[in-house]
User: What shape does this take?
Amino acid sequence: MSENFFNNTKIMFVVTFTILFLSLFAVVVSTSIDNNLNSVYATANKTLSVITSVSPITNIVKNIAGDKISLTGLVPEGVNSHTFEPVPSDIIKLNNADLVIINGLFLEDNMEKVVNESLKNKPDIQLLKLADNTINSTGWIFDFSFPKELGHPNPHLWLNPVNAMKFANLTKDKLIEMDPNNTDYYTENAEKYIALLKQLDEGIEAAVQTISPENRKLITYHDSWAYFAPRYNITVIGAVQPSDFSEPSPLDIAKLIDQIKAEKIPAIFASEVFSNRITDQIAKEAGINIVQTLRDDSLPGNLTSPNHTYVGMMLDNMEHMIIPLGGNTSSLTDINPENTYTSP
Ligand SMILES: [Zn+2]
Assistant: This one.
């Protein structure tokens, strides 16, 4: 009897222990399957929502991110980015973004204010300011339209292809940090795109060499060539537009006309965003025959055009800039302006 009781107790102990052990094992296994499923689910469904500002920057980001993110550029093409204000639907987009990529250096102040507001409720939104991470204050350029006393440097870094390469690398690093599963894709896209930007940089360098040195001078309406010009040994003689984006005073215009005559400038450049009226008036009074339009905020062609890209915009600008100054652009004819990212 006592032996039976002992055996029964032993059996019960073994059975109970086994049940307990199996249950515990089941819980551990199912939890781990669950976790794995969750992470697979998250990885498969999580597409980064990225908001950018001006179209040249949107296109640089697109060439790195390809089809792996949801990308929206907020500043409509041909709109003055310096005074752009987000409308309510833009504010919703900014609130829902994972990452906001802007030029920075005070260009998109209104957009930045919205992001800073959104951050109070959603602290995980990331803001990447490309220009601020490309140069520090020792590299800032102040000039007529962006005077030092106002404290806002000229923000147009992207018109220098070397800066565009840095923008591409900064974008690649941020995307890899936030979406490491696509590291290889972003790395490969960045390599291909930067190779194209190098080709563009070398092509521009060679094209500028065909302009006689006394003509390597720029007078533009909108002051967007401050970082491009020193890269290729071109001098920005002046810009017409005052710092508040109003129209220049008659005295300012008269000074520029004197300068143009003294420096024998062959061409003057209008902007795609601002009125050509003043540029035309200056050209007429200074005896300049050529008024061409340069673009910094909008891409040529329409959404389906192969040159509706940052590189396409730069090639278009070089046609409009180098030929009127007496040079030629044959070093640029083989450059394919199309996007370089791979569509999976
Ligand atoms: Zn501008």
